[in-house]
Amino acid sequence: MSSRTKIVVLHxxxxxxxxxxxxxxxxxxxxxxxxxxxDGKADGKNTGKQYNPGIYTSSLTLNNTNLEVEVSVDESRIxxxxxxxxxxxxxxxxxxxxxxxxxxxxxxxxxxxxxDISLSEDTPYTSQIILDAIKEAVEKAAVD
Length: 144
Fold this sequence. Notes:
Elements: H1 2-36, E1 54-62, E2 65-73, E3 78-83, H2 88-93, H3 97-111, H4 124-141
Antiparallel strand pairs: 1-2, 2-3
């Protein structure tokens, strides 16, 4: 009678081990499905149509010179940010204006957001004016 009990105990251990491995396997599959499912969002930032595609401009004034900030967008992304009428006299008077807009544009391209943009310590006021002009142009592009 004791030998019969040993056989049942050995089978019970095998059943328990099998159940544990099966549960771990199912858990692994569920985690993989959750992690790698295509849900149409990139980092939770893009939720469908955010912008009307096109090129939108906003003006800013530096030292009695009007500059146009041009923002190009498609339905869900900001594609390019640049000055549309930047001439040599403005770049001579404000040599850090082009690096400032490039730095801001790189941050916006990376995050696709106008929040938490770090401004250059060399030109904080000019960078803030540029950022405000970019925000104005993006607001024109936003879907109502």
